[in-house]
Amino acid sequence: MKTIIAILFTAALAAQGPVRLGGNVAAGNLEKKVTPAYPADMKEQHQEATVVLQATISEEGVPESLNNVTTEVNRSFVDAAMDAVKQWRYRPVLLNGQPVRVITTITVNFTLSQ
User: Quick check: 9 pLDDT over 70?
Assistant: First the structure.
């Protein structure tokens, strides 16, 4: 009976869509992190930025959608952050032993000390 309830619970959650995870939980599952290329024009202008992305991570641990939620940041920073994060890979998040899609927030900092 417990198995049937767990399967129904997992199916119900999957039907609702991705599960929202905090950034620290998702970061703990990060297996491959590609550092973004610092945009040359922004480096020359001594500009720094923080880009915040909302990401949906697939059951396989691959970022499948990225949305910029940062306002007032140069687009070249956003593009560089997205290009890098698309290459990141996560250990799948399991719910009742089954991999699930998750939504998380990713923060990418561009500092001149990079």
Answer: no
